[in-house]
């Protein structure tokens, strides 16, 4: 390579200044040309300007969307609508090592049901932790409809930390929703079932099948749900559905709607009309209203019943203590959404054409006056529909969900059958605007639209069908999230975003500046337990230890080698590999894959990850780093050698494939010296400028300094071997010294480019 | 609901015409306002216009990108850079049911290694099938570096159909690359290992560790690789790397480069310099050149050796028969890319600053003249570097890969360390332009850039680090694919696209109009075997049969019910559920999830999917459709009831939760009659227009007709029950009749909207 580093650096610099054109010139298109070629209207151009985000630009809001049956949460930006991350939650995902490293396997194992590992979830409703009813950007919760569970995700590192299994439900839907200070995470049943794990015939449906709302206690200090401090309220075998927590005026209450209060049981295979017929016959279903603050006190007072070792407030107790009420709601409702001031609760009945606005004040007054319209078959007091209504508005065919604007009294309702969004005033009960979407909208989402202070600006329509919106990709279509500008009176559709994986249900959007994720872990960190890993190791202290019959390898990962590079164990051993990524540089993740054992790890800077597996058969198993981390990434490799039982190594040394002489050594040292001169010139360039004013450059300089320190170590080894006349090792260590230089040059050039592009100034020294 | 359908339809229509504004007007932003608010330059606006794709618009090119260690392939559009689909390949993915239904489990099981199920792959290089060196858009191939395997994906439905395990490799990298008529799919070793599965000590590395190139025979009729007609060529224990097939002038040959021809073995844990030092010492490595057409003949002539029941042409045979040659290439090369005319092979040496352009004509002439510079330690003839070179060009620090333009002699090379793309003329050996990317580019991709006729226009830079480009999402960053406009002399960066999942390596882009995926399957289709499923069933013929101790349920899925709705089996049974989606409508996918058994299915229109599992414990297990398929999607539910062994059902009928009278029936019939009037008006609206000119509307009309036929069936049942005085069943079937009407209305409204938005014309009838 000789002094080519220097040459090319010079060439690169020259290109920064100007390039003499030699080829025939191809004329560039004007804006008009482009619009004509692509058939764009002025309206399209305006939409483009509202959403296009140039390189390095930031989105105003980040969205956390359920991934539906993909079992994940996805994160995207508004207004660019670019997906930034899929967070693995209920489904193993190898890129993140989730479900592949021992640490995350422990999280997934928390979600076992009846001892069985589950490898997916049907995620529905993400909820961001709140403080005083505002998103605080610290935690995210999401439920699994299929196997009633709730997961906790830390927004410091976007990782799943905990999964809790509902102790009494067999199906759920109305989760996760948080109370205004994240005291509890709410989860409500979908399809009724017995609380016990026993078989109960459907002939006992009305008596022994039950719904419930569970209040999961969240300990913010620990960042974990505390199952032992959580409780449920027993509900009738209606199909409970979405829920929402009261806020401000209605704080302390939660609301859960329902469908199939007919308690119909299908059986089309035996000639009975299907569920869909029997579950949609009545004109109204029931909104459940629960005083959760009082419920928590009742539990503390010992008035709960232990079912499956979990505190349940029975319906009888709930009725007696006056914490549970029903209100009729038309018809087969889906969304229930409390207004920002907590005064109103809007319910959209999917088989009604109206949205119903309930007044919390009226509901509360009726309860206080014990003014009930009757009771349901289980004795739960029913409030009168008309007496609790503020207004009803005809919003369209198949209304589902409601989201609030920053402007007072403005709400948006998704209209499934009409494929529209209706904007209306819920104070005055007036429709203001409608917009067509493509197609069949489910949920919709405004910015922080379910908090006490929605942020306006944008609305996303989470459509269930895309049909003809995108290039076709086979029978299984993406979903379509459409971005709507709601800044003005008239809603404007400004972007169509395909969802490439999963079927999102609900999503929540938070102001991007509320999120402060970290870029690295403390060195040797078990990120799933949020503590120093017992398996961490420092560079230079790597070792192998056998304990309790398990061969523990305490290794490290750094650009561009894995320590150890050779691991030899005997057939039948259990191996437990522990790797600490000892990088400090942002985005310097390393991976680890090995053939045939289903082991794939992801170690972000600072993280310690482990993989424990049995080696059943003798053989040769190559391993390597799976993240393209440096120029010599492909050389970041090693071998696991499994010897047959009782194998005695022959006294054979490695066959060197190549021999090196003093001449090779001298040549390498010359190249290194030249390279060092180039590095010095880059260092000079950087330090002559106000680089300390740029955090990313400060980080790069730290990283480059690390690499140059490693280079100095390798240089010393090379020189020591040279002094002893061992030209083989001297040359190889001189090469390693050079490799560290290349890494330092890589970083230095990035720092230099950054300074150039950000108008850094020369400073007096 | 009464006649609300009619009302709201009228309201909706009114909104289409105009809306009386009642709220205070919020003024809309002008383009200048938006640019100012968002800090956009004129150049940004031009880039926005070049990439923004309005609703319903199509992308010009579709990209198939490896997902790296996510084990998937992702599909995105150019220029919108929107991701359209993640195709599950080596990793189970529940949204697609991949690895969850029996049919796809069989595909994944083909990829077992030593009997072990693997749940990830490290996908690297996708390849589209070719005809005469052009992409034909029929098949996609992708390799797994970690566990040497190749997968076959059908571009008719974007599904993985086959996985083959390499019979001799323990690690690979240089796959998948196809020959110009997809005769073979090429796969090359990465890290050398013994061909046998035995342990071989590293002291025997030079003698018993080996590389190889495997040529997988692809049978286009069957759409499957034929392992029995595939073969390999034995190679030295160099770390083989990327490969490419010759084309036109060089058709019949394939090229594979390598690094670590030093055959160095690391061992930093025992004081040896690491692999990265010893593998990068020599100034040149070797390009391998193999005559695969002659090799195939040699196999046919019986000159291959069976190793692990696989045909291998040994090095001795390859040398003797004159099909294997080496050419020195500087230094630790990565990409090897044959020019569109097949005349040149460009190699980028990542530790060199040059790209080397080899002339196939010169190589061939030397071979024909037996003019060799020597042999390697294994006796393979080496061609002289200088004699084979056309030119060398200094392109930058850390050049990796090359992609071709539609303009003659123009190539783009990714420059890793400099974080740049260099555009240069490989005929004249001249650098033309450079552009900075963000950051550390690996592969790059031009449109059909590795075929005989690249399409120009766009280039994508597949960057390994994103660092500061996007809103932060924790220590694990997305990757960054940057779209570059190459239409003009000067490259222009026009879009930054985050990669939310996985670490793509290579990607290929095909003109979108070459892809013709289907939108539905023939009814009762096993999509993984591409044949009628033995478990298909027609609506009305659903049944349960016990065979060989397994309870087979032959069921159907349709908006909005699952048949059967109740399944009752005894504890300890093995249940095999088979569901056929009997929809014909585009995008009408249904899912199936059931609690606790890790069963989640996806059935696109026409598909039959199965899940077989053992029910160990008595209990109640709700199931439901996971795709939001219709307004009554939530009611698309059922129960699996597992009775204890020997359970005798009591003679107890279901407790009806609700009773219906003649009055209820009459009310429902009235609602249905009103609804029918609305539907008739929509039908009239559609049929009065030239709807037959719009394929999507024709499809919707077909679908609506299906639903109305179902409605007629339900109506008949309702009327029959009414005639017999059974008001309970009469009312419920009348409700079901109404539900089919709602589905028809949903479809009809979509058709009406489509006609409105596409300027349909009233036609004389």
From TrEMBL, chains A, B:
It comes from the Bacteria. It is an enzyme of class 1 (oxidoreductase). Keywords: Copper, Metal-binding, Oxidoreductase, Periplasm, Signal. Residues 503-656 form the Cytochrome oxidase subunit II copper A binding domain. Its EC number is 1.7.2.4. GO terms for molecular function: nitrous-oxide reductase activity. InterPro entries: CcO_II-like_C, Cupredoxin, N2O_reductase_N, N2OR_C, Nitrous_oxide_Rdtase_Sec-dep, Nos_propeller, NosZ/Cyto_c_oxidase_sub2, WD40/YVTN_repeat-like_dom_sf. This is Nitrous-oxide reductase. It comes from Rhodobium gokarnense.
């Amino acid at each position: 390579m000789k002094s080519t580093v220097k040459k090319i650096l010079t060439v690169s610099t020259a290109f920064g200044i100007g390039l003499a054109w030699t080829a025939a010139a191809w004329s560039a298109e004007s804006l008009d040309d482009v619009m004509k070629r692509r058939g764009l209207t002025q309206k399209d151009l305006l939409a483009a300007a509202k959403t296009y985000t140039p390189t390095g630009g930031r989105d105003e809001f980040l969205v956390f969307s359920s991934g539906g049956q993909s079992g994940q949460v996805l994160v995207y930006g508004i207004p660019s609508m670019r997906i930034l991350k899929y967070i693995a939650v209920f489904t193993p995902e190898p890129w993140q090592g989730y479900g592949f490293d021992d640490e995350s396997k422990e999280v997934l194992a928390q979600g076992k049901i009846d001892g069985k590992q589950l490898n997916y979830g049907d995620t529905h409703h993400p909820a961001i932790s709140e403080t005083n009813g505002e998103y605080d950007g610290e935690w995210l919760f999401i439920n699994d409809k299929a196997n009633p569970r709730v997961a906790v995700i830390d927004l410091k590192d976007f990782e799943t930390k905990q999964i809790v299994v509902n102790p009494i439900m067999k199906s759920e839907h109305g989760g996760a929703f948080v109370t205004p200070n994240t005291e509890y995470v709410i989860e409500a049943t979908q399809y009724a079932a017995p609380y016990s794990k026993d078989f109960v015939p459907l002939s006992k449906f009305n008596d022994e099948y039950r719904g419930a709302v569970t209040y999961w206690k969240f300990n913010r200090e620990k960042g974990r749900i505390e199952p032992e401090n959580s409780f449920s309220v027993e509900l009738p075998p209606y199909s409970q559905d979405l829920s929402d927590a009261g806020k401000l005026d209605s704080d302390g209450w939660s609301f859960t709607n329902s469908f199939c209060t007919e308690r119909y049981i299908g059986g089309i295979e035996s000639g009975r009309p299907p569920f869909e017929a029997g579950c949609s016959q009545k004109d109204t279903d029931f909104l459940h209203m629960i005083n959760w603050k009082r419920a928590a006190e009742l539990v503390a007072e010992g008035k709960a019943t232990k079912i499956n070792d979990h505190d349940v407030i029975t319906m009888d107790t709930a009725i007696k203590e006056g914490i549970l009420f029903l209100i009729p709601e038309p018809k087969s409702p889906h969304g229930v959404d409390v207004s920002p001031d907590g005064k109103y609760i809007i319910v959209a009945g999917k088989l009604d054409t109206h949205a119903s606005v309930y007044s919390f004040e009226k509901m509360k007054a009726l309860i206080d006056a014990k003014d009930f319209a009757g009771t349901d078959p289980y004795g739960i007091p029913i409030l009168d529909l008309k007496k609790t209504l503020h207004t009803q508005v005809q919003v369209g065919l198949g209304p589902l969900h409601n989201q609030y604007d920053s402007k007072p009294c403005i709400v948006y309702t998704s209209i499934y059958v009409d494929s529209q969004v209706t904007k209306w005033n819920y104070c005055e009960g007036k429709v203001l605007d409608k917009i067509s979407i493509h197609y069949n909208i489910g949920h919709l989402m405004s910015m922080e639209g379910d908090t006490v202070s929605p942020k306006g600006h944008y609305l996303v329509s989470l459509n269930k069908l895309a049909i003809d919106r995108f290039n076709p990709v086979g029978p299984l279509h993406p979903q379509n999230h459409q971005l709507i500008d709601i800044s003005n009176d008239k809603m404007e559709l400004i972007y169509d975003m395909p969802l490439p994986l999963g079927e999102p249900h609900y999503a929540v959007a938070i102001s991007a500046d509320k999120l402060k994720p970290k870029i690295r872990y403390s060195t040797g960190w078990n990120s799933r337990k949020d503590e120093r890993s017992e398996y961490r190791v420092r560079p230079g202290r790597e070792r192998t230890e056998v304990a309790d019959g398990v061969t523990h390898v305490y290794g490290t990962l750094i650009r561009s080698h894995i320590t150890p590079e050779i691991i030899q164990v005997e057939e039948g051993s259990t191996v437990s590999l522990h790797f600490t990524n000892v990088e400090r540089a942002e985005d310097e993740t390393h991976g680890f894959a090995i053939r045939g054992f289903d082991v794939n790890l992801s170690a972000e800077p600072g993280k310690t990850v482990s993989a424990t597996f049995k080696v059943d058969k003798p053989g040769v198993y190559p391993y390597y780093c799976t993240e393209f981390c440096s120029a010599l990434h492909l050389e970041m490799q090693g071998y696991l050698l499994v010897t047959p039982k009782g194998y005695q190594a022959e006294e054979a040394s490695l066959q060197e494939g190549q021999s090196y002489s003093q001449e090779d050594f001298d040549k390498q040292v010359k190249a290194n010296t030249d390279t060092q001169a180039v590095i010095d010139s880059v260092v000079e360039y950087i330090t002559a400028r106000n680089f300390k004013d740029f955090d990313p450059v400060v980080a790069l300089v730290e990283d480059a300094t690390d690499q140059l320190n490693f280079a100095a170590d390798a240089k010393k080894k090379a020189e020591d071997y040279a002094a002893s006349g061992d030209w083989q090792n001297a040359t190889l260590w001189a090469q390693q010294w050079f490799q560290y230089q290349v890494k330092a040059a890589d970083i230095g050039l990035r720092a230099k480019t950054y300074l150039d592009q950000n108008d850094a100034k020369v400073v007096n020294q």
